Amino acid sequence: MATIYDLKPRFQALLRPMAARLVQAGASANGVTLAALIMSLAQGAAMAFWPEARWPLLLLPVTLLVRMALNAIDGIMAKEHGQKTKVGALFNELSDVVSDAALYLPFALIAGVNAAFVVLVVIASTIAEMTGVLGPMIGATRRYDGPFGKSDRAFAFGTLAVLLGIGLAPGLWTTIILAAMLALGILTIWSRARRGLDEAAQ
Fold it and tell me: Where does the chain cross the membrane (predicted)?
């Protein structure tokens, strides 16, 4: 199923020169991953501490875009510049899950937003990522199947943040969006599990 993740090769091509410059400057892939994690935690903290403020919401799409760029850059540095390590692979997967939780759970603190759905979406997202990571354990590759992978979640929550940030009052429409996100998250878990099993069987 098509997903925003399919655009990753083009995105990486744009960032490849920057990754090379960072390597030349002595930066490490793990350092870039850490920077993305710290930025995500700071953004999440701002949303949690000021749930009624609009500026953290309007800042979120920028943070998500920068995070996506850093995630692509650390991958390029690891795979194309000899910085791939087991520690880095573990750190990368864990930081993604922690960052998602830090960036999205604060939506539950916004008055009028259905907190239960926010939590369920984050839980489904975590399970989806775990399902993808478990691919190698059953003889398959790491699965990134959609329809609601990391990039898609970033787009959905970023759009939601902008709508709330420009002053739209949360209500039934936010609940419907979150319910749709939950359904897509569950479908993603099923898709990754099924495709992983199919790949392993072959």
Answer: 21-41, 103-127, 154-187
